[in-house]
């Protein structure tokens, strides 16, 4: 009888070990299974339908993106609360909303509309305020996605958009530009351009706040001034406002992507004739020249775009394809940019699993100059592929 408690304890330990092993093994097995027959899409309409249908499933159940690159003892990250963060999820959800704005602009789909409304309803409560207000400026890109879907109801989420503007104002530094984090007073990240600039332009236009538009343009122009490799439009990861030194890597693929989408969506949102339209258009032309010069032979951009031998990154490719597709509206860039965007979509089709999930996006960045070595599914990439697939220009 005395051996039964010991036996029970042993069985509990075995069960715990098996559960931990399963948590570690399940993603690896899922990736292996999902990548069988990857890249079999040859028809763009079929591919567009597949990526859109997968994205629709993720609208109300967005996959969690890991903070770390750990592939062993993942349960420890979960227990420590170090597995994911709301700020990371915000830009995943934002991209899906932007993708479905493109889709619903050209398609009537009650199921997709219901999924979009469910995601927005999960974020906003009574009076149009955030249920859980974003604590970081990353949330501005999600606010931008919401504003795109509520254009016909400008007051519906006005209170929540005001909250976002207040948060951004709290992050404005002494140099008049927006910090990535309050704890990093002197650093300006390229990511911030993608997070805040389109939101600031739409918010400024919708609610007659020209100072918001000026801030967006200043953020971009100051990055051009201090955050680019001299003589190019190749951004580094960040720069110091004090020393003006570059920080991190020049040519980080998703860094180019963050700059690209912040610039192009801000430019697209401005009406013709606006005083800020031409300065941004000139920046679009400059950056397009750089992006075209570092595109890979297969249509991709690598995680380090200046190194042809580095691994391709689907997230950078989708973002830069969106940039070039829209930049092709500018006469002097038209043919070259359209061809490059077309080539990028061909690469993304090759990186798409048979389930319709686009694979091989670089994981979350750990710090300035510390980049993920994992490449997997990223809902953010999926959203931009949906934008590409449902663009009237594609």
TrEMBL record:
Stored SUPFAM superfamilies: Six-hairpin glycosidases (SSF48208)
Enzyme Commission number(s) from the entry: 3.2.1.172
A Pfam family hit: Glyco_hydro_88
A single GO molecular function term of this UniProt record: unsaturated rhamnogalacturonyl hydrolase activity
Transmembrane segments: 6-30
Record key words, sorted: Glycosidase, Hydrolase, Membrane, Transmembrane, Transmembrane helix
PANTHER family xrefs: UNSATURATED RHAMNOGALACTURONAN HYDROLASE (EUROFUNG)
Protein name (database record): Unsaturated rhamnogalacturonyl hydrolase
The species this protein was found in: Paenibacillus forsythiae
């Amino acid at each position: 009888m005395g051996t039964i408690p010991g036996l029970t304890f042993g069985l509990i330990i075995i069960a715990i070990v098996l559960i931990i092993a399963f948590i570690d093994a399940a993603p690896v097995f899922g990736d292996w299974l999902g990548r069988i027959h990857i890249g079999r899409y040859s028809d763009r309409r079929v591919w567009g339908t597949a990526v859109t249908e997968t994205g629709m499933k993720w609208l109300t159940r967005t996959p969690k993106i890991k903070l770390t690159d750990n592939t062993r003892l993942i349960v420890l990250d979960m227990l420590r609360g170090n597995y994911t963060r709301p700020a990371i999820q915000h830009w995943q959800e934002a991209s899906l909303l932007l993708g479905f704005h493109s889709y619903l602009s050209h398609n009537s789909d009650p199921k997709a509309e219901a999924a979009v409304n469910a995601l927005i309803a999960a974020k906003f409560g009574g009076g149009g305020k955030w249920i859980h207000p974003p604590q970081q400026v990353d949330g501005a890109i999600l606010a931008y996605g919401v504003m795109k879907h509520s254009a016909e109801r400008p007051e519906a989420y006005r209170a929540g958009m005001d909250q976002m503007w207040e948060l951004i104002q709290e992050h404005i530094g002494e140099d008049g530009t927006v910090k990535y984090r309050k704890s990093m007073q002197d650093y300006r990240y390229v990511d911030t351009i993608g997070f805040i600039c389109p939101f600031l332009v739409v918010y400024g236009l919708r609610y007659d706040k020209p100072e918001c538009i000026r801030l967006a343009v200043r953020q971009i122009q100051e990055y051009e001034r201090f955050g680019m490799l001299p003589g190019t439009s190749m951004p580094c990861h960040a720069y110091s406002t004090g020393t003006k030194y570059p920080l991190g890597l020049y040519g980080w693929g998703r860094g180019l992507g963050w700059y690209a989408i912040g610039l192009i969506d801000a430019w697209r949102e401005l009406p013709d004739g606006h005083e800020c339209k031409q300065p941004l258009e000139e920046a679009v032309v400059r950056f397009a020249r750089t992006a075209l010069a570092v595109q890979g032979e297969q249509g991709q951009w690598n995680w380090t775009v200046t190194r042809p031998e580095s691994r391709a990154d689907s997230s950078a490719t989708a973002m830069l394809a969106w940039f070039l597709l829209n930049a092709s509206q500018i006469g002097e860039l038209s043919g070259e940019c359209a061809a490059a965007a077309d080539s990028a979509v061909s690469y993304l089709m090759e990186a798409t699993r048979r389930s319709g999930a686009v694979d091989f996006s670089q994981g979350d960045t750990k710090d300035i100059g510390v980049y993920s070595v994992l490449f997997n599914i990223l809902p953010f990439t999926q959203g931009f592929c949906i934008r590409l697939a449902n663009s009237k220009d594609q």
